[in-house]
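In response to the reviewer comment on reproducibility (Comment 2.3), we provide here a single inverse folding case reported in full, input and output, so that an independent group could reproduce the run without further information from us. The structure tokens appear first.
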């Protein structure tokens, strides 16, 4: 088996995993399965180094960063929601965070399909 074939198979395997992780992040996001969303995040952290030197590495970092920023903005919205005055602002933040996360999942999945790295 040639070295190039092994690298192609390794890259395809890493790409397939990243695709499934986008799907799992998306499912947990769409169905508000907060506890479930930790599973693809943990896998991203574990498998990111395996994709080092490939464009797929940037997709793991993209997914990780998307998760943490989304969580951050949801918590900020939750804190504001705890105050009566902040309720409209909380809904605005939650809506913005939801749209932003949806964009990041779709953009990442499309770029992965096109073999493009994510700009981090």
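Designed residues, in position order:
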């Amino acid at each position: 088996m040639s070295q190039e074939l092994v690298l192609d198979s390794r890259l395809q395997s890493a790409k397939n995993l990243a695709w499934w992780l986008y799907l799992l992040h998306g499912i947990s996001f769409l169905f508000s399965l907060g506890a479930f969303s930790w599973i693809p995040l943990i896998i991203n952290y574990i498998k990111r180094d395996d994709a080092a030197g490939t464009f797929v590495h940037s997709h793991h970092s993209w997914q990780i960063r998307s998760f943490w920023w989304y969580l951050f903005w949801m918590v900020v919205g939750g804190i504001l929601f705890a105050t009566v005055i902040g309720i409209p602002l909380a809904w605005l933040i939650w809506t913005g965070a939801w749209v932003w996360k949806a964009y990041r999942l779709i953009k990442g999945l499309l770029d992965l399909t096109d073999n493009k790295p994510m700009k981090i």
